[in-house]
Write a structure and sequence with these properties.
- There is one protein chain.
- By secondary structure, the protein is mainly β.
- The chain has two domains: 29-195, Galactose-binding domain-like (Jelly Rolls), CATH 2.60.120; 250-383, Jelly Rolls (Sandwich).
- Helices cover 7% and strands 45% of the residues.
- It has one helix and 30 strands.
- The strands form seven sheets. It has a seven-stranded antiparallel sheet with strand order 17-19-20-29-22-25-30, with no helix packed on it.
- A hairpin with a 2-residue loop joins strand 3 (52-53) and strand 4 (56-57).
- Residues 1-31 form the signal peptide.
- Keywords: Cell wall, Glycoprotein, Secreted, Signal.
Length: 384
Amino acid sequence: MRRESEMAKQGSRCVALFFLLVTVAARAVSANISDGLLPNGNFEQGPSESDLNGTRVMGRHSIPHWEISGFVEYIGSGHTQDDMILPVPEGDRAVRLGNDATIRQQLRVTRKAAYYSITFTAARSCAQAEALNVSVTPDFGVLPIQTVYTSSGWDSYSWAFKAKHGTVWLSIHNPGHEENPACGPLVDFVAIKNLHPPHHTPGNMLRNGDFEEGPYIFPDVPWGVLVPPMSEDLYSPLPGWTVMSDTKVVKYVDAAHHAVPRGGRAVELVAGREAALAQEARTVPGWSYRLSFSVGDGGSGCDGNLAVDAYAGSAATAKVAYESRGTGGHKRFEMEFKAAENVTRVVFHSSNYHMKLDGTLCGPVVDDVILVPVHKHAARRLRM
């Protein structure tokens, strides 16, 4: 009888241990994901006091729905470092990734082989160039957290991947090795969106010329989403388009917070001549084509002569200018050209650098880009 009682107790302990392990594992695994914030993507659910040493998180699974490694800190809004206040963009909490630190979450994607974009908000906490390595095996991208495009110091970044399996690990890693191990980027607001790669339409040889398909934009964040350069990444969070640069970006903006020429989305060229937006289209040498597009300002105080350099292959270039008062508005431009190659690259970049009164970088907004063949062999001309 006593032996049976001990066996029963041992069995109860095993069952309790099993459920404990399942519960701990479940904290880092989400259900099937949908567009929007990841489970605890804003880090408002934090570790218990017993899992904190000051601000440092000590347990691997201490932050609900996330798994951590390395020097990770749980930062509250208003936290100070060297007399500098570290603000949190929304809510009260964020995480800081120190030297070689990682946060990751396991996601059950809705469709294998589908394309997804990740959007997260990050800020530097120290006065040096920082970077974050975002990965879903085997894809990864190193995003520079260097140039600041908002007055708050926080920017939203995007990155895209193709799901190779039904369950994937999303990791955000700080590859830095600084003297101060706590020195590293702050991360908040992590979201996902299923991308639907657009196809060519009868009225446009370019894909996603209206920029309606792109990364997730947080509805309560007014500064848009930065789209990084595509020097190494296989997939673009802005389907159809490539950002050409070493370290600079373009900004993806929405009509809820910006003046958009047409539809609900557009692209702001915020890095001067250091970043260009490009897409290649199949053309027939000797045939004539018309490239039309809108240039304007986002209504966010970016005023002055917002000029854009537009290219259609190596033979056709144009500089178009929009005189902005910073309150919104746009103009339509057209350029006709004769194709010289089987593939023509369409490129846009800002002709100059622009800055708002608060010192943040800004630039012209480009939208509604259309490329069509014309049934005449006309010399290149620009229409405004």
